[in-house]
Amino acid sequence: MSSLIQKLHPAVHPGRQLALCGSRQPLFSRQGVWDSGSSLHCVAMALALLGKLPDPVDVRGYASGPAAHFWDRAWPHYLHGLAPSELAAFIWELRADVQPVEAQGPPDELLRFCAQELAAGWPAIVWIFKPDTEERHAALVTGIEELGGVPRALLLLDPAAVAPVLAACNARLEFDGVHAPDASYITAEAVVGATLDSAISICRQQGSVTGACCA
Questions:
Q1: How many domains does the chain have?
Q2: Tell me: the pLDDT tens digits for 124-160?
Q3: Is residue 149 part of a domain?
Q4: Domain enclosing residue 189, as ranges
């Protein structure tokens, strides 16, 4: 009988409130009701997982330092959001000793890409496309669920969903099979048909130091 295994990013600390290992700083950054900044929230959380941003939740609350630097560059894009290629450029411009790696292709290839990057310790941001509403939305990969060694679901932090409680994710993208183009996007509010549209992982540049934040 095949075992169901969840593999989480090593910097994630599940608990009553999802936090970062070590500092126990809350991780989940909530998107507003009517803005389009989901990808920016995902970048903030990804940088926190890499030790590059100490507080991904309240970046507007700092007058100086790495959080203020991040917000100064993020706010002009907050209302309209960023497409994957635009987000990659945004990550480079942060000068945070990290580099984006863009992935394109069919959903099964993107699923394997996310599993590979997670295994290396690099957080990935994915775009979920919902055909019924033609909505494209970004979420952060915090884990992979495997069945018999085959990736079958992405465990996600969706900035627009409710905060996770006693869990490492607040959304799931479940595939019927590794080659299936379509999937089910599951949150506490609904289950909808969706597909994996694109992905960007964020990795430390060679020689960078954990804890050296945006400057």
A1: 1
A2: 999 999 988 888 999 999 999 998 888 999 999 999 9
A3: yes
A4: 4-204
